[in-house]
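Q: Structure tokens for this one, please.
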Amino acid sequence: MTSTIDTILAKAPAQLTAGDVAALATAGVLEDPVTEFKQAVSGPWASEGNLTRDGQNDLIKELVAFANSFGGTLYVGIQESDDEPKRSAALTPVPRVGELAARFESVLRDCVEPRLLSPEITPVVTDPATGEGVLVVRVAPSPLAPHWNRTERKCYRRIGSSSLPVGMLDIQTITLERARTSETVERLFAGRRDAFGEVWNAYSSDRASKLNISGWAPNQPIPTGFAIRCTAVPILPVALANVTGRADLKLGIGPVIRAGSGQGLSFPALTEPQFFRPALRAWGYERREGAPKITCTSSWYAATGSSRASSCARQA
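A: Here is the predicted structure, written as tokens:
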């Protein structure tokens, strides 16, 4: 049963079915740093279709907290248990879930600063006749953090299974964490680029010598051939589920922590099963040809907001 639930949790929101959310609702899935269940939308949405300011803020709080922490998924239409620790207890479909998704997408765009990068907002209809269902919203850990709800003028962070307001010291900490990550990625790219240049020049020298190319100077690229470099590094703590799809090769479920040097990964053990959605890695590529001129595109963030890339090309 656990493997089935892990498979459902691993799905993108757009891939979820009515059966999937029904299974989650009755499986007793624990709320944790990346999972939050809500029985309904606060306010008169069910009776009047009115998404009030309080109802908006109640949902925004969870997503801002996820974005400022390790990302996560909000399920609206699944009741949580009364006992601790909180867990999924029952399916409580939300009326007009498709309309709610459209309204909430506009709310997120207008109320969260900086804007969240490509949140996944999906209405999972459980009863086509009435339009009831579960609203599923997933956000990635954001490189643009800290985010806040500008209508409330509050910033939140995920601490355990709760989304809590944070003060100025925490906001400064989040900012410094993201800045240090960016600097580390850029240093890694620079180191890989320099090492790649040395290998390319050595290869070019050896090849030119063997081909007896006239006019060639030692340690200079030759005007033919090309090489491609691809660099990938984790930029945030990432958790890994069963990425192999094979029970005999299952790595277990736990956070993958980037070592202090930025060179390695470790898989610390967990005291209880948890599920974290894998995040993208930072990546960059480089193509080199004959002449030693290097041009670089500007760095950018991928659509999920969880990866950083640098692209360089050596051109004739």
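A few notes: The radius of gyration is 24 Å. The mean pLDDT is 75.
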